[in-house]
Structures are given as structure tokens and as C-alpha cells.
Amino acid sequence: MNNYKFLPQVKHGIINVGDLPIPFDIVLNAAVLVIVLTFVFLKTSWKESILTSQESLFSTKQSFAGKSFGFLILLLLTVPGLINNEAATTSITPLVLWIFLWIAVPVLGLIFGDLYAKFNPLALIVNREGVSQNVYFASILFLCLTWFELVWNKPGNPRHIGIVFLILITVVSLLQKFYKKTIIEVDPLLLLHHLYSKLRITNKTPVFKNLLNNISNLAQLKGMEYFILLMIGTVTYDGLRETTFWFELFGSQTYETFFSTGAFLLMNLLIIVFYRFACYFAIRVSGEKFDLNEISLKFGHTMLPIAFAYHVTHYLSLLLFEFQTVLYRLNDPFGFGWNLFNIQEPVVDYFIEPIVLWIVMVIVTLAGHMLSVILAHDLSVKLFGHQKSDKTQYIFLFITVALTLQALFVLSVA
Asked: Which of the four pLDDT bands, split at 50, 70 and 90, describes residue 57?
């Protein structure tokens, strides 16, 4: 994230490579070995597809309680910044958006499934259901929202957040009203949370198979794979730009909006290009007559575990520590000088050692990439057959290994 970071001493990595409990090169080599061994194991033991494929969406209807809570969230996102110019370090607004909605709700989705749809504040004006075709509008709006988060110089300013959220709810409502789009097609936050809820771990037995089935049963809406790739690309950019490597490479221009915008867009474009090339390679190696766009969409869900792993590890420290200030920020939610809970200053308990936090992040990162390899292998077996499955996946494997190394590099040197 940018200079709205509430706790400058808490980053998504540990202080430097020298703080690691084992040498950094051993970490990287072990991670690559784990991914490659997973690939080899699947080739020798997973000879038939075991996952079902069925398109599934969900209802976006909200109860009265859900609408009431959504309205409260909308008030906290817009009113404080529009009526007062409170600092980001004390306002409830940035915590609601960047901690609660952006991090806490997706993590809770691991246990409870899609919670966001039940109170979605962007659905209060128009909440259109029906047959959905594509998520191109949602992808564009997601790119704009993450640009605001990562490139804009004051994404934590309550007034800026209030204006952006009002623009967002207006655009989402107008697209539904006049272009007859369903809300899942245009609402980037709703789609984001829906995708992350697919990784729910509280499933019926067999838990692991049901987890894989949940991920593989994404609705085949055009552009879904691009949305997932943007989820990866935006966090990849954010992680790399916070490293000393990035600053040494590009110098002071990393603080310029024009340069940052270009780098932000280029990073996302590179992720998409490499992914599309992997799909093209799979088709050519298989010798089958598949359409590139068809294969691109079908393999989209295989990248979702990586996106979720990046999201969790990148923002985990903010969730664990900054969320502890919620009562302090709610003590005076609208900046009127209230003292509802008689709290004079925030108290944050750094109860997890940096090394422990780093180990958790590494485990989550590897788990996400391993799930991606498993999902890609199962789909390859289904589409191309067992004999060709490994050959079609060479580029996917290379991309997975590259993303693993990049993620561990960022976690360890940021």
C-alpha cells in the first residue's frame, strides 16, 4: 500500500534477509523443489480428473439486517471524509475500506463463505440479478480501485475515499440501470469477495476435494480469468515497489504518479501476457483444436489460490495489528469530538514475532501455489488426457515457480 499505511513499522515482509532463520537461498530452493515435486507427484499418481465442472453463481438478495449493516458501512465510508477532514491515522474510514472490507471479510470468508454479498453497500441503490455474460466492467473498475489504492498519493485520506466510493456506487448503479448489467458483472468488490469465498475451508468431508471443487466451479463469465490475473498483478506490483530492489532500479521516479501508473499497468499486462502464452502453449503442445479464449477462461480458476495467497500474506500484518485500533477510531466516527468509549489513544499489541509471521506467510504462499498446480493438472488431464497433461503444463509450471520466487523475495526483503 501507499503512504496511507497506518503502521509504518509493519510491512508484509521482515526487516531483511539477515533476519531469516535459515539462509534465503535455501528458502528459495526448497520452495522450487516443493512445487516441482508436486508437479511430478501429480503426473505419476493423478491420472484421471476427479473434479466436477458446473457453473454456479449466487443470490445477491439482502435481508433487512444486511441492508441496514450495508448502509452503516456506506455511511462510515463516505460521511466522515465529506463533513470533516480527519487524518487517516485516526479516521474510521480507511480502516473500514482497506482493513475490514479489503482484508478481514475475505479472511472470514474462509470460514463463513461469501459474507460481503449479504451486506454489500454498493447494492443498496440497484441490485439487479439475472443472466450474466461477462465481468469486463467489474475488471476495469477493479483496476481503477486498485490504482487508487496503490498509485494515488493519498488513498487513506477519508475525503478521497468518500469521493471515490460515491463515484463507485454511482457507476455501478448506472451500469445496472441503463446497460442492463447484473451486479456481479459490474461490482468489483462483490466479485472479489465471491471469488475469495470459493476457498472456504469449512466444507463437508472430504474437505480437500470439496475445496478443489468449489474453486473449479467458477461461473464461466467472459473476462473472469482477467479479473483473477488483475488480483495477482496488482499485489505483485505493490509488493515489488516496496522493496529496496525496486528503488535501486528506478530511483526517485518511483514516487512519481506517471511512472507508477505505467509500472502498475505494465505489471498487470505482463501477468496477462504470460498467462495467455501458457494457454497458447498448452493448445499447441496438445495438438487439439481448442480456441485460445476458451482455454484461457477454463484455466482461470487455477490462478485463484495464488491470488488469495498473495492477498492474505501481503496484508496479514495490517489485519492482525491495525485492526486493533477499531474501537479507538469508532470512539469519534465522524470527527465531531465525541468520546463514545473513553479511549484516549490506540493500543496495539504486536503479539506475533516477525519470524513467526514470516513462516506463516511462506506456508500460505506455498499452499496457494501448490493448489494452483493441482487444479491446473486436473483440468489438463480432463481436457488433454493424462499422456499429454504434463507437456501442456510446462509453461504454467514455469509461471508458478516464477511467481513463488517473486512472492518469497518480496516477503523476505521488503
From this structure: low
CA distance 267 to 162: 28
Query: How many structural domains are present in the chain?
Result: 1
Please check whether residue 220 is in contact with residue 226, taking contact to mean a CB–CB distance below 8 angstroms. no
Helix, strand, coil percent values for the chain (each to nearest 5):
70, 0, 30
What is the Cα–Cα distance from 383 to 288, expressed in whole angstroms? 9
Q: Measured between alpha carbons, how far is 155 from 88 in angstroms, rounded to an integer?
A: 9
Q: What is the pLDDT of residues 305-323, one digit of tens each?
A: 999 999 988 888 889 998 9
180, with CB counted inside 10 A (0-12, 13-18, 19+), is exposed
Q: Per the domain annotation, does 169 fall within a domain?
A: yes
Residue numbers of the domain that contains 188: 17-413
- Phi/psi at 11 (nearest 5 deg)? -115, 180
* Mean pLDDT value of segment 359-379: 94
Cell numbers for 198, please give them. Answer: 470459493
The grid cell for 139 is: 475488471
Please give the Cα distance from 301 to 229 (Å, whole number).
Answer: 10
pLDDT tens figures, 223-277: 999 999 999 999 999 999 988 889 889 998 998 999 999 999 999 999 999 999 9
Cβ(20)–Cβ(412) under 8 Å?
Answer: yes
- Per-residue b or e along 299-313, where b marks 16 or more CB atoms closer than 10 Å to that residue's CB: bbbbbbbbbbbbbbb
Say which residue the cell 509450471 belongs to.
397
Residue 1 lies in a domain: no
155 within 8 A of 1, measured Cβ to Cβ = yes
Whether residue 2 lies inside any domain: the answer is no
Handedness of CA 205, 56, 315, 240 (dihedral sign): positive
Q: Are 170 and 121 in contact (CB under 8 A)?
A: no
C-beta of residue 355 within 8 angstroms of C-beta of residue 19: yes
CA angle 34, 195, 66 (to 5 degrees): 140
Kindly state the DSSP code that residue 92 receives in the 8-state scheme. Answer: S
Q: Is residue 23 part of a domain?
A: yes
pLDDT digits (tens, 9 = 90+) for 160-190: 999 999 999 999 999 999 999 999 999 999 9
Q: Across the strands, what pairs with 222?
A: 134
b or e along 246-260 (b: 16 or more beta carbons within 10 Å of the residue's beta carbon)?
Answer: beeeeeeeeeeeeeb
Residue 242: phi and psi, rounded to 5, are -95, 0
